[in-house]
Design a protein that fits this description.
Order of helices and strands: EHEHEEHEHEHEHEHHEHEHEHE
CATH architecture of the largest domain: 3-Layer(aba) Sandwich
Shape: flat
Structural class: alpha/beta
CATH class of the largest domain: Alpha Beta
Strand content: 15-25%
Number of helices: 11
Number of domains: 3
CATH topology of the largest domain: Cobalt-precorrin-4 Transmethylase, domain 1
Strand order of the largest sheet: 10-9-11-1-12
């Protein structure tokens, strides 16, 4: 008599769309790849080009060398700045050392940089909504002299501000924040400083907004949700928060399929999957295939919008 084989339980995977790479991330990775093609390895990259270990390792295999600071880069070498943006002191230091540098800062982050510079030139004190220590925040605050920008992370931070009423104020926002949380902080700023100046168009980037809307839409219809992304990726962490705040308390962040706790998924019938803007689609496919080893899988998709944004790379690196 043949032994009974345990039948796999059924699992419906619901993919959030859009998910994964955004135009800014694609541009940054392409800049590294094109620089390697044009100049040959090694090409140096200051900090992680994007917050994803898999991407970093793929580029290392092609000849990219990732460094913390420019003093690790040999003279006259090729160096690339990450997609998160850098303080003005970084390109200045690169020029002083005669390094050939390429700025892979996302154009939507550069937009925030220009806004902050414009407000500073108009003698406004800038209140930057963001997370302390994040590379994007460090880069944005570094566009103007120290003391010209004050960081606020919460509504409580706004309420605690004691600033001269004789001064003009403006606000700017880190591009990868929770849309809802940022809205609450902006409203608190407007209530405290009724004449505060803001961006003509919101600073939170299209990709962050779209990915959060997609997760928000599917959160109520799934038993659990996986966000594929890095623990230092702000936009990925926000996706987990959005899921938890919109009906899916069982949401977790994983970098790779091998990290998944399969006992956690036992008893679940519908699993939502999204990916942060720095996570390639190959990692989504890896998670789906891993799920097939444990379940009989059906795949659906919830799409909120079609993205067709593209950012050009520097002219010297184009084919």
């Amino acid at each position: 008599m043949q032994p009974l084989v345990a039948q796999k339980k059924e699992l419906t995977i619901v993919l959030a769309a859009p998910r994964g790479f955004c135009a800014g991330v694609e541009r940054a990775i392409t800049i590294v790849e094109k620089a390697l093609e044009k100049f040959g390895p090694p090409v140096y990259v200051r900090h992680e080009i994007v917050h994803n270990k898999f991407v970093v390792q793929q580029l290392e295999a092609k000849g990219a060398i990732f460094v913390k600071e420019l003093d690790e880069v040999p003279p006259q070498a090729q160096v690339i700045f990450s997609a998160h943006g850098v303080p003005k002191s970084v390109p200045e230091a690169a020029q002083a050392r005669e390094l050939n540098y390429f700025d892979a800062t996302c154009p939507l982050v550069s937009k925030v940089h220009r806004e902050v510079e414009r407000h500073h030139a108009a003698n406004r004190l800038v209140l930057l909504i963001g997370h302390k220590g994040h590379p994007e925040v460090i880069g944005t605050m570094g566009q103007v002299p120290e003391g010209s920008v004050i960081l606020v992370e919460t509504v409580a931070d706004v309420e605690a501000l004691t600033l001269s009423a004789n001064q003009e104020f403006a606000y700017a926002t880190q591009t990868t924040l929770s849309v809802g949380e940022a809205h609450d902080i902006v409203e608190a700023l407007k209530e405290k400083f009724p004449d505060i100046h803001g961006p003509h168009k919101g600073d939170i980037c299209y990709a962050t907004t779209n990915r959060q809307h997609a997760v928000q839409k599917l959160a109520e219809s799934v038993d659990a949700l996986i966000v594929i992304g890095a623990p230092n990726s702000s936009n990925s962490l926000r996706l987990v928060e959005v899921a938890k705040n919109n009906g899916c308390a069982d949401a977790r962040l994983y970098q790779r399929a091998k990290e998944i706790d399969w006992t956690w998924l036992q008893g679940k019938k519908r699993l939502g999957i999204s990916a942060g803007a720095s996570a390639p689609e190959i990692l989504v496919e890896e998670v789906i295939e891993a799920c097939r080893e444990h379940f009989t899988v059906t795949v659906d998709e919830v799409k909120v919008i079609e993205e067709n944004v593209h950012f050009n790379i520097p002219k010297v690196l184009r084919d």
